[in-house]
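Thread title: Can someone regenerate the structure for this chain?

I was given the following input by a collaborator and told the matching structure tokens would be attached. They weren't. Posting the sequence so someone can regenerate them.
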Amino acid sequence: MHPPLPFIDQLLLQLEQQEGRIAHMYRDTRGFITIGVGHLLTSEHDALALPLVHRDSGLPASADTIRAEYRKLATRPYGQRYGASSFAAHTRLDLPDPEIDNLTQRHIAGFHQELGGLYGRAHFSAMPERVQLALFDMIFNLGLPKLQHGFPRFNRHIRNGDWPAAARESHRRGISEARNQHVQDLLSG
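Best answer:
Regenerated them for you:
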């Protein structure tokens, strides 16, 4: 049970606008190593699971090369003043576009299942697409545990179908005000 294809296209566009689409590893504003469309790499093991290639030749990267780049990147400064693209000068490996697409599609499928579990599959599927888009943005940014436990009033309003009240409870710290406003606008209709 996955969202219909037009919805996925709209969701992919939204996620790329909000998260960016970066082929190389970088440190996000909180220092986490990330790649693609906001895909968190929690360890070297996560990076080793990806089919990274050398940017200059397109040849597959060895496990040692991936480990070295991950470790090097983990020592780089990070924060609001360091955009994802600024890390390109410190990397030599990329994730090919089709792999970024596959990774993002897997995230969407997993988050779709988690949102259905959190709000009830039938209830979630019956929500307006704009509300589903807002919920995907929330779970993509926060993850299920933070969405589920860190936003109790928001979740209550979602379960009750009170989208404007949910919009008022949707503000997240550590992201741009434009992104917060985007979710509020989706929920407010």
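The two ends are 25 Å apart (CA to CA).
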